[in-house]
Design goal:
This protein has 234 residues and is an alpha/beta fold. The protein has two domains: 96 residues, Rhodanese-like domain (Oxidized Rhodanese, domain 1, 3-Layer(aba) Sandwich); 104 residues, Rhodanese-like domain (Oxidized Rhodanese, domain 1, 3-Layer(aba) Sandwich), CATH 3.40.250.10. 30% of the residues lie in helices and 12% in strands. It contains eight helices and nine strands. The strands form three sheets. A five-stranded parallel beta sheet has the order 5-9-8-6-7. Strands 1-4 form a two-stranded antiparallel ribbon. Strands 2-3 form a two-stranded parallel sheet. Helix 3 links the parallel strand 2 and strand 3. The protein is globular.
């Protein structure tokens, strides 16, 4: 399942992949998705795919995100041309998808609210590194940072003031420690698991967004907090 914009999909996608662009189209097509097979989701770098995967799993699908998406992952794999096509694939209807109405409504609301902040600092429930640093430098008390990296990596260096809740089964038990009166900027390594965390937090009515490319890794190039040379503390 390719959630990039149609123009990117048309230029090339994995053979057999259907295109459901990130946004309201995902909520609109829930009942057409299969529950009897895994759904592999990819976007550009993995971040919005993370959000999508979390929403689909809540809806009862078996969804997984492709590491680093198309730009940083799939397109760099040797032999990718052999599994790439430009032909558009039709989304087949599935009358027995069985998505609970209240969950479908919550996902529709998720994307409706996202549409309201289009072209703002928090478009797609994300924030770029420079804008996040400005909030940190200003000591904006309406914002907090949440690291979902492993505890040992958090200990080696994290954004000042960040709380650590490692991404893992059972992490939701710690969500009660998070404030609902602040914007929560979530970051991981590349943005992918932060995207999943953001989706769940927003469904639970926390005001969460993910940091573009997370802390950053070699695969993200110059994107990501540490890759930008921004400060960390121990």
């Amino acid at each position: 399942m390719d959630i990039r914009q149609p123009d990117a999909y048309a230029q090339g996608h994995i053979i057999g992949a259907v295109n459901i662009p990130f946004g309201s189209a995902i909520a609109d097509n829930l009942t057409k998705l299969p529950k009897g097979k895994p759904i592999m989701v990819y976007c550009y770098t993995g971040q919005t795919a993370g959000q999508t995967v979390a929403l689909l799993n809540v809806a009862g699908f078996n969804a997984k995100s492709v590491n680093l998406g198309w730009n940083l992952g799939i397109s760099k794999v040797e032999g990718v041309a052999g599994v790439t096509e430009t032909k558009a694939n039709v989304i087949e209807g599935n009358a027995v998808a069985g998505v609970k109405p209240e969950i479908q409504a919550a996902i529709k609301d998720y994307f409706s609210k996202m549409a309201e902040i289009k072209n703002t600092t928090y478009a797609n429930y994300k924030i770029n590194e420079a804008d996040a640093k400005k909030l940190l430098d200003a000591k904006d008390k309406s914002v907090m940072f949440l690291s979902v990296r492993r505890a040992e990596d958090y200990a080696k260096g994290h954004i000042e003031g960040a709380l650590n809740i490692p991404f893992a089964k059972g992490m939701e038990a710690s969500f009660d420690h998070l404030p609902k009166d602040k914007k929560i900027i979530v970051y991981c390594y590349t943005g992918q698991t932060a995207g999943q965390t953001v989706a769940i937090l927003r469904l639970l009515e926390y005001d969460a967004v993910s940091l573009n490319s997370g802390m950053g890794m070699p695969a993200t190039g110059d994107a990501g907090w540490a890759n930008k040379g921004y400060p960390v503390v121990k």
